[in-house]
Every structure is written in structure tokens, then in C-alpha cells.
Amino acid sequence: MGKRVRCELCPTECELDNYQIGGCRVRINKEGVLYSLIYGKPCSIAIDPIEKKPFFHVLPGSKAFSIATVGCVLGCIFCQNWQISQARPEESDHYDLSPDELVRKAIFYGCQSIAYTYTEPTVFYEYMYDTSVIARRYGVRNTMHTCGYIKERPLRALSRYLDAACVDLKAFTEDFYARLCGGRLRPVLDSIVTLREEGVWVEITNLVIPTHNDDMKKIREMCKWLLNNAGADVPIHFSRFFPYYKLKNLPPTPLKTLLKARETALEAGLKYAYIGNIRSAGENTYCPSCGRILIERIGYFIRQNNLKDGRCPFCNTEIAGLWEA
Amino acid sequence: MRDDKRFRVFSLFATFLVVIILSYNLLQGYLLTGFGAYIKRRIYYETVISKKGLSLHRAEYWRKKD
Fold first, then answer.
1. pLDDT over 90 at A3, yes or no
2. What is the pTM of this model?
3. A61 touches chain B (CB under 8 A)
4. Is residue A313 reached through a cis peptide bond, with omega within 30 degrees of 0 on the bond before it?
5. How confident is the model at residue A178 (pLDDT cuts 50, 70, 90)?
6. CB contact under 8 A, A89 and B37
């Protein structure tokens, strides 16, 4: 009945029988060979402000050509994009877009970067990899928004072409990952370290869910870990949760909680902490030295950008990030 | 045929039957479930997935690109 195959892309390491599809829904073992079902078949294509990813320290005010296919390596019950992340490729509509056509479109629409986003780009690894190689050749930046649930070897291979990654650090307990996501925390932390080692610009997103991961003690612990393992320059975004998918019995995160989380991150020693999915002054970038406003944002849009060559114009402090295309 | 010979043939036949029945009971879960699941997956692939026009792109090629 055919050879079994072990998928070595994500830490789940699905062992697949002949014609069996992996937990991500998009990889199949056919006669002992592993295939991707969604290569060149994105289900979502859009041109977004890069702030939407969210990247606050990467080419502010620029456009990102954003794509996603269906599928995900995790099964978070609070998923904010579950309509596509939990869908099967054979049940969804998709576009036909080859990697070179994708890069061509990004350039045509004046996008300085391509964002592999919305769902988990790890599942369309081969598509992302080939696109990244071509994009790099044409000077288009590659960015991804990922849950970081990927094995070291493929991540290192991809990192050669990756400019920035926004990693969803969903919580700082193994229990949370096991109960709510069907995954583990350790591989995510390892991915953050690997990305930093490979010189990829990293930003962190933390979706704050009332009663599940809004304990300030744990948030402090998470920020301390980031400080020690990724550095004080890593920006962290605390995003507001909305009740979707299988977690509808909770209210949206109160602004008070998000402000407290931001304060906790700054106290822990991180230089850049932001609040997302809600309008507030927590969306702005402030100089960590003089405290003056450097980039003022309203939602995904830039109201003022005072940075001069990646430095604070008031005290000349260098602000970490990818500021130029 | 003498009685003892008849008895020997009958015993051998009975032992053979017992072994076959025991083996079937022991292995049916493994063999038939596996085969049944394979047939189900194969039918799903042929009738649903391959009809959708999805490409089959060889995966995990960081192995050779490393």
C-alpha cells in the first residue's frame, strides 16, 4: 500500500500513509513522495500597508504585496483567520499565480515587499521559497508573518532570502499551546532564536486573550526571555483579541489590559512595545532615549515619520529596523 | 482408511482451521483497517482532489537546496 513518509517541515512531524494528507491539510504522500497541493495557488491576494502585518520597523508607509494559501500547522481555537487557515485546498477557491508572476505583480503595483501572511506561510514553504529567491533578485523584500512552528533546517534555508519575520508568540506557557493551539511553545522560541541568528529582522506579536494569557507575570516572563534571547531592540505588538472561531465566549481584550501589557514590556527592558487592533497612542514609535515621537500612526497609516536615516532627529539615537528599501 | 489415520487427518484439518481463524482475528484489525483506509483515501484523492486542478509540487526540497 505504498511507503510511509514523515514530513519534516514542522515540529508535528506527521507520518503519512500512502495518499494521506498531513495535519496542515495541504501536503500529501503519494506513492512515497511528499507533495504540496497549494504551490502557486494562493487563496488571498491583497496590497496592504506593511503596518498591517504588523511591521512597525520595516519600510514604514510602504505597500506589501500580501499572499496566503489555505492551511495551517496549528489549530488555534481563537484563530482570527480561521475561514482560510482551517480550510482544505480542495474545498476552497484559489488563484493561479506562479512565483515569477507574483514578483512581477508586486513590482508592477509598486510594492517594496512581499508579505507571506494571513494564514501560516510554513504550509506553503516551497512556494514562498521560490518566490523569495526571485524577489531577492529584483530587490523586493521578503517578509512573513508566522507562528514560528517550523523546524530548524527549513527555516535556516529560507532565512537566506528572508528580510523580516513577525512571529506570533501566542503565550508563554506550554499548557496554552497544548490546550488552545495543538502545538508546543519550545519550537516557537527556537525559531525566534534561529531567525535572529540568521540576521532576519524579527518583530513579535502577542494576541492578548482575556483569562487565557493576560497574566502580567507571564507577560513579564515572556518579555524577559525576549530581552535575553532576541535583544532589547525586538519590537513587540500586543494585539486585541476578538471572539472568533471556537472561542466566542470571551469579550474583546479591554484597552486597559493592553496598556498594562505594553507597560510591562517596557519595564522588562524592551525598547519598543506597541498595541494593535485598537486605536491608541500605543501605535506610535517613541525614541527609547529621549522619549520623543518618531513615527505617529493612525491604524495602519503613518501620520508623521520623523526618522532621519534610521536615527532619532532629536537625540541622534539609532533606531533598530529596516528603514530603507 | 483406518480409524487412527482418519483421526490424524481430522486433527490436522482442525488445527489448520483453528490457526487460520486465530490469525484472522488477530490480524483483521491491522490488515483490513489499513487496506480499507487506503482505499478510502485513494478514492477521495482520485474523485475530489485531482479533479480540483491542484498541482502536485514536490515538497521538502530544502534537502537538495541546502
1. no
2. 0.90
3. no
4. no
5. very high
6. no
ipTM: 0.85
Confidence of residue B54 (pLDDT cuts 50, 70, 90): confident
User: What residue in B sits closest to A97 (Cα-Cα)?
Assistant: B55
Region of A83 please: left (phi>0), alpha (psi -120 to 50) or beta.
alpha
- Domain positions in chain A are 5-283, 288-319
A197 lies within 8 A of chain B by CB = no
Q: Choose the closest CB to B52 out of A27, A90, A157.
A: A90
Suggest the residue from A91, A126, A127, A194 to mutate for an interface test with chain B (most B CBs closer than 10 A). Answer: A126
Residue B29, pLDDT above cutoff 80: no
Q: Which CATH superfamily is domain A5-283 in?
A: Aldolase class I (3.20.20.70)
Could you list the beta-strand ranges (E) of A73-163. 113-116, 141-146
Q: What does the H/E/C string look like for chain B?
A: CCHHHHHHHHHHHHHHHHHHHHHHHHHHHHHHHHHHHHHHHHHHHHHHHHHHCCCCEECCCHHHHC
